[in-house]
Amino acid sequence: MKQFRQYFTFASNNTADTLGINVLNLGHNIHPVNKPYPDIQHPDSYYFEWEKGRSLKEYQIIYISKGEGYFESNGLPPQLIESGTIILLYPGIWHRFRPKEETGWEEYWVGFSGAYAKYLLEQECFNPQNPIIKVGFNTEFLETFSRFIALAEVQEASYLKLSSFLLIQLLGIVYTSVLLSNQKKSRKEEIIDQIRNEIHRKWNNHIDFEELAKRNNLSYVWFRKTFKEVLGTSPNQYHLLLKLRKAEQIIQDSNLTLSEVAYQCGFESEFYFSRIFKKKMNYNPSEIRKKNMSHPEF
């Protein structure tokens, strides 16, 4: 896949300010392996050198959906960042982060300010000195970000106000994730979370779930039943939906043919990929490309 960066800045927004929240910028990037970070396309006002780090004048949510890396901040020792991690940045707090050279990473981010944002992020469950939140693969989070980017591309008359509503939705997901992470998980949930993370790491590979259960010292019957109990779907269906969501994102963010996307996402053929995509997502994958062509980037 090509290196990809999509970055939007938002104009001053009095309507959104009345909601107590103001979206400042938004972006998505797939940073490839063995490349310096940040890359040369990084916005000048946010570029930083690793040795110096940086601090911001705004809040930012950064979601690492794929890959691994490192994060450091005032009062916080170096942290390993895995896929499925949110980094919550506060104004005036020094920090630095980068992906591992051997993995690269995929990142989404949004910068914002406002009284409501300040109120929410000063709640007891949040800690500016410990801004790492592990949420795993969160389809709702990714879908909201995708809608956010699509809205910024089109810039319809109401996009500034709608962008604030989408940001509030993202913050709600983050807030809920923090509250849930503070609750003690059952042993069942811990086991399924561990296996779900492995599925996410190997999302475009064939996964033998019976073998996966065996490697984790579980019977397949217990594993399948418990997986569905915890996540509401079977392991196979979860893995399939994961691949389809990733395929949708690749189609949006690249010029790969549908055949290349199908291969990259582990499907046996373009025909099977298109058929199962239509069945599960209720629209054809080719419609994504047509929509993008009708709304070119600005």
TrEMBL record:
Q: Which InterPro entries match?
A: AraC-bd (IPR003313), Homeodomain-like_sf (IPR009057), HTH-like (IPR037923), HTH_AraC (IPR018060), HTH_AraC-typ_CS (IPR018062), Tscrpt_reg_AraC-type_HTH (IPR020449)
Could you list this entry's UniProt keywords, alphabetically sorted.
DNA-binding, Transcription, Transcription regulation
On whether Lipid metabolism is a keyword of this UniProt record, the answer is no
The domain of life for this entry's organism is: Bacteria
Q: Indicate yes or no for the key word Transcription regulation.
A: yes
Q: Sorted alphabetically, which SUPFAM superfamilies does this protein's record hold? A: Homeodomain-like (SSF46689), Regulatory protein AraC (SSF51215)
Q: The HTH araC/xylS-type domain covers which part of the protein?
A: 189-291
Q: Which Gene3D superfamilies match?
A: Homeodomain-like, Regulatory protein AraC
| PANTHER family, per the entry | ARAC-FAMILY TRANSCRIPTIONAL REGULATOR, MMSAB OPERON REGULATORY PROTEIN
Protein name, as recorded: AraC family transcriptional regulator
The species this protein belongs to is Arcicella lustrica
